[in-house]
């Protein structure tokens, strides 16, 4: 079946699935493969659950005319998404970066949806599967699609750009994330900049944080850029008023009081503001959208439990995000501060040094108590409470109650799943 014909079938039943456990009536099921599964083996189950079509790439699983045999199911999914993106009239805004992608994407969507019909990446479905799935949620009347792009190696953003063909782009920052795959911070900058490269080559527009020296230098001669800055008069001026604990912003004699904690969320909110302004969203609507956005999914959430004030930032971590989180926590005007930090993953040969640097910073900031969890943190030389894994942390907290009315920062990589700590407090 040609992509054009498959797209016609998709328009008649515009919903796709890659998981038979979540399949809905009349979905088109794509039989994807992974290291530990083969979606082809679930073709019959998909039909039994009501799938309209099943896209397979192994002929032994062919069942009837509702099963479509292709050379590669994943490539077909990507080609269908690319075709649909070109078929629809929505403008695509893509964003990437080391930290803050998902929060920034949510803020942009919140702002633009106040005025336009939008769709956005759900959760963090931002890879070679998630981006196509996002594009396939674009409807014929969608005006903006906000597409998050993640990467842990070179050429990945370039590949995603060729599928999504963004009209606009924004990079949150360049930080020490996925150092193992990128081969160091230089690789991170090069990899994330593939979004810039695509936009420049296609003469598309770029949004930027003009206070970020690396971004400003890379785009110094590019004319189609729109930036925000706290002090550079060439760009749209936005000021940080406060972050105790929530970020408050001054823009055009208007104060926006967000529910975002941490100074690191200032630039995330600024991106949403400038993108909203660029597309003529009224400032009053921008203010309302940002002030009513509440972070969730373990991203800088404020939790009050048993008298403790908890910042739950356990969705993910890397050396850059960990450093700013610790510095922000140190700046808060609160007493009895306790850190519970989990290992940072995908750092490769830099893991030992980066964990030692964060452990040293935690001690030097002189918090009341520092609890480090994970094999990498356990191997550091700092004089703190060091625990090998979550099981050891559970035992420690069951025996040693945290001091009453503490302020607690919980942060670690996704694989550490430190949100489980809440049940122990």
TrEMBL record:
Biological process (GO) annotations held by this record are: cell division; cell wall organization; peptidoglycan biosynthetic process; regulation of cell shape
GO CC term, one of those recorded: cytoplasm
**Gene name of the encoded protein:** murF
Reading the lineage from the top rank, the first entry is Bacteria
Q: Name one Pfam family in it.
A: Mur_ligase_M
Pathway listed for it is:
Cell wall biogenesis; peptidoglycan biosynthesis
Q: What class of enzyme is it?
A: ligase
Tell me the PANTHER family matching this sequence. Answer: UDP-N-ACETYLMURAMOYL-TRIPEPTIDE--D-ALANYL-D-ALANINE LIGASE
UniProt keyword annotation of Phosphoprotein present: no
The chemistry this enzyme catalyses reads:
D-alanyl-D-alanine + UDP-N-acetyl-alpha-D-muramoyl-L-alanyl-gamma-D-glutamyl-meso-2,6-diaminopimelate + ATP = UDP-N-acetyl-alpha-D-muramoyl-L-alanyl-gamma-D-glutamyl-meso-2,6-diaminopimeloyl-D-alanyl-D-alanine + ADP + phosphate + H(+)
List the GO molecular function terms: ATP binding; UDP-N-acetylmuramoyl-tripeptide-D-alanyl-D-alanine ligase activity; UDP-N-acetylmuramoylalanyl-D-glutamyl-2,6-diaminopimelate-D-alanyl-D-alanine ligase activity
**Which InterPro entries does this chain map to?**
Mur-like_cat_sf, Mur_ligase_C, Mur_ligase_C_dom_sf, Mur_ligase_cen, Mur_ligase_N, MurCDEF_CellWall_CoF430Synth, MurE/MurF_N, UDP-N-AcMur_synth
What function is annotated for this protein?
A: Involved in cell wall formation. Catalyzes the final step in the synthesis of UDP-N-acetylmuramoyl-pentapeptide, the precursor of murein.
**UniProtKB keywords:** ATP-binding, Cell cycle, Cell division, Cell shape, Cell wall biogenesis/degradation, Cytoplasm, Ligase, Nucleotide-binding, Peptidoglycan synthesis
Q: Where is the Mur ligase C-terminal domain?
A: 299-414
The protein's name in its UniProt record: UDP-N-acetylmuramoyl-tripeptide--D-alanyl-D-alanine ligase
Q: What is its EC number?
A: 6.3.2.10
